[in-house]
Amino acid sequence: MKKFIIERKLPGAGKLTPDELRAISKTSIEAISGLGKPYSWVESYVTGDKIYCIHIAEDEAVIRTHSKFANFPVNVVEEIKGVIDPSSAD
Predict the structure, then answer these.
(1) CB atoms within 10 A of CB 7
(2) Which domain holds residue 21?
(3) What's the average model confidence in pLDDT over 73-87?
(4) Do the domain assignments include residue 87?
(5) What is the pLDDT of residue 90?
(6) Is residue 72 in a domain?
(7) Residue 56 belongs to domain with CATH number
(8) What's the CA gap between 12 and 26, in Å, rounded?
(9) Which residues contact 89 (CB under 8 A, 6 or more apart)?
(10) Average pLDDT, stretch 22-41?
């Protein structure tokens, strides 16, 4: 399984209400259950006009299938090759 970051352009994302974010979350979970393949949604980050999602899947095609099932925009999909943080400097 590979880890991916997905960029979703969604104008006004930062102004979504808690109920709207909850609905998006439920839609994502329902789409995952319909995939019939190993798949995990790790977390998402909401910015002003975008949502960045971290997902674990077999490949990019499954990521795009999930987005299609959920009717979510998918603008960029990148496989995460590594993670660094301040402790990486030690």
Answers:
(1) 16
(2) 2-81
(3) 96
(4) no
(5) 87
(6) yes
(7) 3.30.70.3090
(8) 19
(9) none
(10) 95
